[in-house]
């Protein structure tokens, strides 16, 4: 199909996004599309005509789908079909009410569980002969076959009783055509409700459904497909719509991402045909890129036979309801295997990633220091005196760093100290500071040093605070390098002060690195990263 005809087909189906500003952010991050409302969900099911349905009707179809015996499968399918159409037609408030009913009224039958537990406790252990070893006794080993038969029967009944009633609903819906997508939409709505109503019953429902989805979406059930310009316009439409890291600006931009020097791979499931669950974009380069402009504007692209690096620059999930299910881990590994097989000249597999939580973390630290320093500042007899290197901020800025920031930044931001000016600069709604060579020179060393500290030291429950870093580290990558002014877009400046990071996947150490991070929280990084962290950085 010609460029014109393919472009026309895509344009007829989707509105093209506005052109991005210079230096638009592009990096590997596990994002989730923000659209999970009723209208957007319905777009995925064009075969389901829009209609008004009463909430009680949808409840009845759900109840029938759970309670009808499995030998009457034709009635089950009919009710699942009606439920699917009806659920998508409900407004968000209707879906919230339905999910509360599902979580509360179709939970575990605890009366039955209690009854079986009493039966089990009343079975009583028979007296065993003296020949049984102490080890067997300590592990509850019993040789009375009649007694064991009673145990097995009660334990089996307990396992059945401990399954919530909505287990049947999830299993049947998953087996129904289009049901897996409905389950993904349902979980996206559930996550949205949980953000506002942190009820234990809703959390239990979410955890149970998540575990089911992990089983159904195992790598063995997924198909890896290289997405090209020759794919149907309906698929390319979804790539444009779901690209969550770097908006596709034009048809030429889309074509370029799918042609020479670039690859795009997606994971597909047979139950959701024609739509990737997650896709990754790869640039073939001569070396690991230090700035996003190197990836976006290298025209013409590097010759593929001269490339030595496969750079993962965007990973996008298409299903908000699959949040927390790490399909990206398996996708990256499969893509590495495929590229290695087809292009033996590629020896380096890396990313160019944002650090979305960095500035937010730094602003909170600066705000705390400023608050604690108010009393010290008030005691100064001369209010115009510049306050340098107080004991409160010595661990954030070094004395010389603070002085340089004050001298370079006082024309752009108010403040009586370097740390106050830095706070005002980073919290500003504009990014004018990033255009001042003098200020950039003063900010480079402290912001890079603090960024490394943020990535290596700042953790929650033993894992790094930054979501993107956690994603790659748990997949077995190492922190190779951080790059100054690598993303000068408004978003890049706002999130990470323009800094981006290269994560590298060393094939022989992926599993070892992932296990170390998972078990102890240890973060593997290059010697350059640790050297920059421990010593003042060179200008």
Characterization of the model:
It contains 24 helices and nine strands. It has 539 residues and is of the alpha+beta class. The strands form three sheets. Strands 1-2-3-4-5 form a five-stranded mixed β-sheet, with helices on one face. Strands 6-7 form a two-stranded antiparallel sheet. InterPro entries: Malonyl_CoA_deC, Malonyl_CoA_deC_C, Malonyl_CoA_deC_C_sf, MCD_N, MCD_N_sf.
Give the % helix: 40-55%
Morphology: globular
> What oligomeric arrangement do these chains adopt?
single chain
Beta strand %:
5-15%
Main beta-sheet annotation:
5 strands, mixed
The CA-CA distance between the termini, in Å, is: 52 Å
Broad structural category: alpha+beta
**Strand order, sheet with most strands:** 1-2-3-4-5
Tally of individual helices: 24
Average pLDDT works out at: 86
Total E-strand runs: 9
Return Rg in Å: 28 Å
**Poorly predicted residue ranges:** 16-43, 386-394, 535-539
InterPro entries: Malonyl_CoA_deC, Malonyl_CoA_deC_C, Malonyl_CoA_deC_C_sf, MCD_N, MCD_N_sf
Domain Malonyl-CoA decarboxylase C-terminal: 221-505
Organism: Dendrobium thyrsiflorum (Pinecone-like raceme dendrobium)
Domain Malonyl-CoA decarboxylase N-terminal: 153-216
Describe this protein with a few key phrases.
24 helices, alpha+beta, two-stranded antiparallel sheet, 50% helix, 9 strands, five-stranded mixed beta sheet, 539 residues, disordered C terminus
Short description:
With 539 residues, the chain is of the alpha+beta class. It has helices at residues 3-11, 38-43, 55-67, 73-89, 92-105, 110-121, 134-138, 145-161, 166-175, 179-196, 200-216, 233-242, 251-257, 292-296, 327-342, 358-372, 374-378, 399-409, 418-426, 437-457, 467-474, 490-496, 510-520, 527-534, and strands spanning 222-226, 262-269, 278-285, 309-317, 348-351, 459-460, 463-464, 478-483, 500-504. Strands 1-2-3-4-5 form a five-stranded mixed sheet, covered by helices on one side. Strands 6-7 form a two-stranded antiparallel ribbon.
């Amino acid at each position: 199909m010609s460029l014109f005809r393919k472009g026309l087909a895509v344009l007829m189906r989707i509105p093209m996004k506005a052109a991005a500003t210079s230096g638009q952010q592009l990096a590997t991050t596990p994002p989730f599309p923000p659209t999970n409302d009723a209208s957007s969900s319905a777009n995925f099911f064009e075969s389901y005509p829009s209609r008004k349905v009463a909430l009680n009707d949808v409840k009845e179809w759900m109840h029938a789908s759970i309670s009808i015996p499995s030998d009457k499968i034709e009635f089950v399918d009919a009710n699942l079909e009606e439920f699917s159409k009806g659920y998508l037609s409900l407004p968000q408030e209707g879906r919230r009410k339905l999910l509360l009913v599902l979580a509360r009224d179709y939970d575990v039958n605890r009366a039955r569980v209690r009854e079986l537990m009493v039966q089990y406790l009343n079975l009583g252990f028979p007296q065993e002969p003296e020949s049984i070893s102490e080890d067997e006794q300590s592990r509850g080993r019993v040789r009375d076959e009649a007694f064991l038969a009673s145990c097995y029967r009660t334990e089996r009944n307990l396992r059945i009783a401990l399954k919530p009633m909505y287990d049947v609903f999830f299993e049947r819906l998953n087996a129904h055509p289009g049901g897996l997508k409905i389950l993904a939409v349902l979980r996206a709505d559930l996550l949205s409700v949980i953000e506002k109503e942190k009820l234990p019953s809703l959390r239990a429902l979410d955890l149970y459904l998540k575990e089911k989805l992990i089983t159904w979406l195992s790598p063995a059930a997924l198909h890896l497909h290289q997405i090209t310009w020759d794919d149907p316009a309906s698929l390319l439409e979804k790539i444009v719509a779901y690209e969550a890291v770097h908006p596709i600006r034009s048809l030429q931009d889309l074509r370029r991402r799918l042609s020479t020097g670039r690859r795009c791979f997606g994971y597909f499931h047979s139950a959701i045909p024609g739509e990737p669950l997650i896709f990754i974009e790869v640039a073939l380069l001569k070396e690991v890129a230090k700035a996003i402009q190197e990836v976006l504007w290298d025209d013409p692209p590097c010759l593929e036979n001269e490339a030595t690096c496969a750079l993962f620059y965007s990973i996008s999930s298409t299903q908000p309801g699959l949040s927390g299910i790490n399909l990206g881990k398996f996708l990256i590994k499969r893509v590495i295997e495929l590229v290695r097989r087809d292009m033996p000249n590629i020896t380096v597999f890396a990313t160019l990633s944002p650090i979305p939580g960095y500035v937010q973390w730094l602003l909170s630290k600066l705000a705390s220091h400023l608050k604690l320093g108010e009393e010290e500042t008030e005691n100064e007899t001369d209010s115009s005196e510049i306050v340098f290197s107080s004991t409160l901020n010595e661990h954030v800025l070094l004395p010389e760093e603070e002085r340089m920031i004050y001298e370079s930044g006082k024309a752009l931001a108010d403040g009586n100290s370097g740390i106050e000016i830095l706070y005002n600069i980073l919290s500003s709604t504009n990014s004018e500071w990033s255009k001042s060579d003098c200020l950039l020179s003063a900010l480079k060393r402290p912001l890079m040093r603090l960024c490394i500290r943020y990535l290596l030291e700042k953790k929650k429950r033993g894992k790094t605070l930054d979501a993107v870093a956690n994603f790659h580290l748990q997949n077995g990558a190492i922190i190779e390098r951080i790059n100054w002014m690598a993303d000068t877009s408004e978003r890049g400046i706002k999130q990470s002060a323009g800094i981006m990071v290269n994560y590298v996947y060393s094939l022989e150490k992926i599993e070892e690195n992932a296990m170390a991070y998972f078990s102890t929280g240890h973060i593997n990084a290059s010697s350059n990263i640790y050297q920059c962290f421990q010593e003042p950085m060179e200008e």
